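To: structure subgroup
Subject: Chain for Friday's discussion

All,

I'm putting the inputs and outputs inline so they're searchable in the archive.
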Amino acid sequence: MSALKKAGWAALGVVLASALVVGGVVLWSSYQKVPLPIEDRCSATVKGRTTTVDPDQAYYAAIIAGMSVQRELKPRAASIALATAYQESGIRNLDYGHSDSLGLFQQRPSKGWGTEAEIMDPWYSSREFYRALVKVRKWDSKDINDVAQAVQRSAYPDAYRKHVDNAKTLASSLTGETPASFTCVFNKPAPANPTGLAEYLTKTLKSQIDVTVATDSVRITAKGEGQAWAAAEMAVAASGRFGVSAVQVGPYGWKLESTFPASWSGTGPVTSPEVVVSFPTASATPR
């Protein structure tokens, strides 16, 4: 075989190997329900464990976790809800499912969960999930998979177990239990929308926060430090959707980056449960 042919076969081998690697990464990403490393993404890091989700998953996960804060439930409630949403929908607000199942939790109108329109409202569906959850005996101490199954009554009773670790990480971060633990990266965030973010936070946390909207900021006064961190992490989770550029909680700050997920900076105690969410001004240079 000539040297030219050998070089050609070698090049073809490299191309095929690269295609297999790329295909494998894509399949892994799809199976694990996580975004690819080059995509816009968000992540929660708690006790050395990092869970990564895509922007839509982050948006809905924040609603699910925030609704548990609104109801003043333990973070474990959000862990159960998120493990359920992982299994049922991949934390996506699906308008289809088995039989008449819909939404984040694949709730069924025919089983009394609500109308189709109600179930497709993530705030409504999360609220109804928690209403059912707190009726489960010892829900706050029993096995997370078993509690989720008691609510859902799935044909696959152990299916929620594989999502528990990721759910616990997201829940601890997004409920404010673990401060400064959630971050996102967006290459092209949406235009600044302070009013939209304020409505999102208020609808989710309700009486747990007071919100004031300005042209280039949203100021939040929370009932306590935990609620302040929940609001802050929610703002980060929705930063791409509402064009957030920075979040400040006491001495801690986070800024949106377009190439890598930025860590929170700052040290020291949070002496006041106040959060300031900033937006780029019209004259700011786009990223």
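Points worth raising on Friday:
The first helix runs from residue 3 to 32.
Strands lie at 41-46, 49-53, 182-185, 209-213, 217-222, 246-249, 252-255, 274-278.

D.
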